[in-house]
Amino acid sequence: MKKYDFIIIGAGISGCSLAYFLNKNSKNILLLEKNSDVAFGASGAAGAFLSPLLGIENKFKSLVTTSLKFSIDFYKNNFPNLLNNCGTIRIPKNSIDEEKFQSYMPFMDFDFEEKERGYFFPIGSTVKPYEICKALSNDIEKVFDYEVKNIEQIDGYWKINDDLLASKLFLCTGANISLVKESYFDIRAVWGQKIDILSSTKLEFNYHKECSLSKSVEQAGKQKISIGATHNRFSEDMSDTSYNLNLKNINLLSHNGKSLKIIEEDIEKLLNKAKDIKKLEDIEVIDIKIGARASSIDYFPMVGSLVDSKSSFFKYPHIKNGTHIKNENLELIPNLFTLNGVGGRGFVLAPYLANVLVESIINGKKMPEEIENFRLFSRWAKKLNNRGKD
Ligand SMILES: Cc1cc2nc3c(=O)[nH]c(=O)nc-3n(C[C@H](O)[C@H](O)[C@H](O)COP(=O)(O)OP(=O)(O)OC[C@H]3O[C@@H](n4cnc5c(N)ncnc54)[C@H](O)[C@@H]3O)c2cc1C
Fold first, then answer.
1. Does residue 288 sit in the same domain as residue 205?
2. pTM of the entire predicted model
């Protein structure tokens, strides 16, 4: 069985960013992907807009600000041709939104000025999602069309599908978390759609109101514009549709009637929202992509080691009675790490988080607590305790 220092499962922006930073420490890395290429999951559906989060000070906004600064510099320095730093005009949705915007003024982390009917942020950018994932993983050995069905620990290694061994294993599987057998590690799939159109209308900047419009790029004598994105949470069983995480290459499938109905409705929603931003002439929809964002319960990413809940309960039975155990004393699943839960901002968060995770594993640097998986375990254990009291 072939052995690797690091195996990464999932070749979206999370797995590819991680591969890039791990590659600085080892050349013995393998990236595994169920689909036929990189960026064929959520990462292939994204408009890949990079834009500031506005609001009052809070930990999530700080995380987005830090990540946005890091990621823009990272893309600019390493892949300048794949970044379009044209700026974004944010247009308030209504008068209440405008008031909110005014109240956020003291907390703005980035320069801006009034423009058109909104506020222009020069930092606003897009990246080319497929090309960036490809470039990040350029030097990395990859196997496509390879679904990991089983992982198990054996003699200090992680064994993958009885085929491969890894000293350290990284799960970057997005909305599909079936490989993690821990109940506290919970992801919500928020499906979405992005469309590309051709129009005769030229856009000089990105725009954001109830949807995002990209700066236009000339194509076949017309202007190509990306419009993203919709948000669909399905509570019913969608296994007979394309909105099914177990499928491969979702955007290459011919969709059935039930899926097409949702897709058509989403096209209409996106075009209506887009027209509310700019009058777009002679529209022709030329591409449609769907994908599932992976959102954590508290919207923060899910990064680092996983707590072994069974061994931790065995070692500290009082956790179940509400006793708090320090993170460093909990039992961990050895040599298993996640980079997940990047929600609707993967292209902003992933490069920053990948660097933070690699620095923590290789150089022992402390990660910010709010992104670590420990918080999920603690919250879940507390809930178990409360339920016990009912
Ligand atoms: C319509 C839409 C628009 C969006 N717009 C933006 C935007 O403008 N800006 C932004 O920053 N973000 C945007 N996002 C969010 C962004 O796309 C995600 O945050 C990001 O792509 C998540 O990356 P990921 O690598 O974590 O997951 P994914 O890209 O989903 O990658 C996970 C990969 O793991 C693979 N995998 C899973 N299980 C297995 C297994 N068992 N074996 C092998 N492979 C496996 C999957 O096939 C998949 O390729 C958007 C998302 C959508 C859906």
1. yes
2. 0.97
Mutation test residue for ligand 1: of 173, 207, 209, 348, the one with most atoms within 8 Å of CB: 173
Other beta carbons within 10 angstroms of residue 53's beta carbon come to 17
Q: From the CA of 174, how far away is ligand 1's center (Å)?
A: 5
Q: Give the distance (Å) from ligand 1 centre to CA of residue 283.
A: 28
Considering the domain architecture, whether residues 304 and 231 belong to the same structural domain is answered as no
Cα gap 354→341, rounded to integer Å: 13
**Chain segment 114-166, per-residue pLDDT in tens:** 999 999 999 999 999 999 999 999 999 999 999 999 999 999 999 999 999 99
Contacts of 288 (CB under 8 A, 6+ apart): 193, 194, 195, 251, 263, 267
| Same-domain check for residues 280 and 324 | no
Give the end of a domain, one of 276, 295, 314.
295
Which tokens is 64 given? 């987005």
Asked if 369 contacts 301 with a C-beta cutoff of 8 angstroms, the reply is no
Q: How far is CA 378 from CA 170, 171, 338, in A?
A: 22, 21, 17
- In the chain, what are the helix, strand and coil shares in percent, each to the nearest 5? 35, 25, 40
Q: Percent of the chain scored above 90 by pLDDT?
A: 95
Q: 390 pLDDT exceeds 50? A: no
Burial bucket for residue 302 (CB in 10 Å: 0-12, 13-18, 19+): buried
- Token pair 């009034």 is found at 114
Sign of CA dihedral 181, 147, 140, 51: negative
Residues 140, 21 share a domain:
yes
Cβ 47 under 6 angstroms from ligand 1: yes
Provide the 10 A C-beta neighbour count for residue 368.
Answer: 15
Does residue 175 sit in the same domain as residue 192? no
Per the structure, the complete domain to which residue 371 belongs is given by 2-48+130-187+298-389
